[in-house]
Amino acid sequence: MDISMSTIIHLNTRHTSYIMSVLPTGHLQNLYYGRRIRPLKDAAVLTQPNAVPYGSMVAYQKEYPTIGLDDQCLEYSALGKGDYREPAIELTAANGCMVADFKYVCHKTYKGRRGIPKLPSALGTEQNCETTEVILRDEAIGMDLTLFYCVYPEYDVITRFVCAKNNSGQKITLRRLMSAQLDLFDSNYSFVTFDGTWASERTMHSRRLCEGIFVNDSKLGVSSARHNPFVMLTADGCTEETGRCYGMNLVYSGNHSEICEVTFNHKTRLLTGINPSSFAWLLAPGEEFYTPEAVFTYSEEGLNGLSHNLHGFVNNHIVRGEWQNRERPIVINNWEATSFSFTQGKLLSIAKEAADMGIELFVLDDGWFGRRNDDTSSLGDWHVNEKKLPSGLKGLAEKMNALGLDFGLWVEPEMVNEDSDLYRAHPDWAIKAPNRTPSEGRNQFILDLTRKEICDYLTETLSKVFSSANITYIKWDMNRNFSDIYSPTLPPERQGEFFHRYVLGLYGVLETLTQRFPKILFESCASGGNRFDLGMLCYMPQTWASDNTDAQCRIAIQEGTSYGYPISTMGAHVSASPCFATLRNTPIETRFNVAAFGCFGYELDLSKLFEFDKKAIKEQVAYYKAHRRVIQFGRFYRLRGGFNPDKRIWLCVSPDKREAVAALFQETAAVGRGNELLRLTGLDDHLDYTVTGRRQYVNLKTLGDLVNNVLPVEIRGDGVIHTVLSSHYMLAMCDEVFEAGGDLLNGYGIKLKHQFSGTGYNDNVKIFGDYSSRMYELKARE
Question: What is its EC number (predicted)?
Fold first, then answer.
């Protein structure tokens, strides 16, 4: 097949190439996406031979009887001309026809990039980004599609979005307009998704591809805990450290859909964008519609390599403003300590303990406003409850500041309770379907943010709250999914625009507030991680990863999250034991070791702790401060425990590789396992390191009757004296200090001290039971 080199579009990052060309039929095709290659001298080597028609193929046109669109790797496909796979675009013209056929017109490349109207998008300048625009046209309909490709060389990322413009004189209805399509020539992959529910978010699932259609989507109105918009394709044999893999995410916080289709001829199509379900957008003559931005990356260094691409990209091109690459403060949040039942005095008693322990920020959670004594009332009434807080927000913030703490606040602005002054004044502001009794979630309704007057009201009301006191942090919550979808301000033919218009309304509010209050650290929350996505991260640098603070559950949640999102974006707190969600008892040292790999804080009643826990927390806070930078912004690796693959290792390495922090996690103890092997990666082979186990403590209650092995006098195990001692005496875990070269640590590892295994105990034996863990500091030797 003769292809003009002038229509070869070759995009390069540091390590990848993305190549397109134009078929003789005029359609844009994908030739290649993989490791970086040199400019093509002859595109024919990457072009699919079309020597004869196959089977039941529909030939696109007589001039090219061997070319059927159903068998091509296309760049953006439509319905009606012989491509029977999932399309990137579906539309209905004014005459009711649904056939569309977009062909290449021209393309241009320039330094930098443009933003997307009314939608958040990645940051890019002429120094770090290059954009290629490709125009496709359907002459019969009178519509142009502009495909945008923004190349970020440093992070091996290419972002994509689409603009549809109606150049005809009649209305066109868009029923599907995906942000991006990727057609691959083979299908030797697994489709990896991150799924779950409340308190069990982003669990990794991998499905070997076969012929068929695989869908990862949300219809909840938010990006959802059920199916995160981040997905991966992993080639056969791909591991954490080696192998080929693709990653794809979406800068969007509403209904999304990722579709993976494998055809009869073993080609793979991947699509991402706004969920076509319940979507229809009426495009008037001359109007444009922009999709959200999709984010693509490719790695041949396994899943860790793919994550490194995305972590760097998110930290430097998604997160923005005052908190870009800035260390996050250590938080104490009162929710799990007090729920709705608190007084100003109670809050200050917790705050005094927090300040003494070195914590930096007090966050007042739900219950401070209106008559909010439970979850049945007052959402929407954003004025302080002076019975609970006689000094008001301003006075309380001043008292916190006097203790040396910054002050933060919880809000849930998108919601309203039926029992609220706001609802009584504006019952029509809540989302309701006509002639139906509206369904409640958590005793609340959602405000109709498709309406400008409601968005304006929220913006001004919240601005008054945020400026009423010295507030440095806002936790923005959203505690229910959508139902009864309808807006009285939209005509019948535009009701299919509701979900997207809601997201646009929300983004408008967030854009205004974050511009007005640039120094406030915003944290997104939606019943935990029900809206953990790149769209929210454009406005709020971190997201509460899950309402489940059980350390063992959080290992899976935070590890799953880490594939697509950096440590610096995950809210993670130490809570009481047993955990409210699982009733599981977990050592306070393990609770810290897990939560430390995130935007760290505590969520328990510090005023009720025994001395053991207070001393442990004080040391934890000091340790975190000393290593905060490398944990939050170092290069993160997921590893398994060497000779003990049932164990997990997390590792953060500084950019210069002179400092690192690792953590080894054990789920269950077993007799006879002996030593653990601490095998790491990402260190400098030519440097020597000192490896030091963090000073951790074991609660004497863990030992039962064996406590007498470490005491000078004998006591009854689990007796009163044992209980009193365990509340005050701290049994230090054995010291572990090693010297080793980076080449040894990377290639083989070091053998840690023996853990207790049923018999014998001395200073060289480590008490390491169920749900135990230890952190290790690595420092390069001078």
Answer: 3.2.1.22
The residue behind tokens 């290639």 is 747
442 annotated as ligand-binding: yes
Token pair 């004998």 in the structure block, residue: 714
Task: Tell me whether residue 366 is annotated as binding.
Answer: yes
Does residue 547 carry a catalytic annotation? yes
Task: Give me Rg for the CA atoms of the chain.
Answer: 28
Amino acid at 228: N
pLDDT 10s digits, 690-726: 999 999 998 777 776 666 666 666 777 667 666 667 6
Q: Please indicate if the annotation marks 766 as binding a ligand.
A: no
Residue bearing tokens 């602005």 = 413
The residue from 633, 655, 672 where one domain ends is 633
From 156, 381, 547, 550, the catalytic residue: 547
Q: Which of 284, 318, 352 is the last residue of a domain?
A: 318
Examine residue 145 and state whether it is found in any structural domain, yes or no: yes
DSSP β-bridge partners for residue 262: 212, 268
Asked, for residue 68, whether it belongs to a domain, the answer is no
CATH number, residue 262 = 2.70.98.60
CA pair distance 42, 21, nearest whole angstrom: 12
Q: Is 70 a catalytic residue?
A: no
pTM of this structure: 0.97
pLDDT of 731 above 90: no
- Is 477 annotated in a binding site? The answer is yes
Residues 773 and 758 reside in one and the same domain? yes
Range of the domain at 271: 75-318
Span 296-347, pLDDT tens digits: 999 999 999 999 999 999 999 999 999 999 999 999 999 999 999 999 999 9
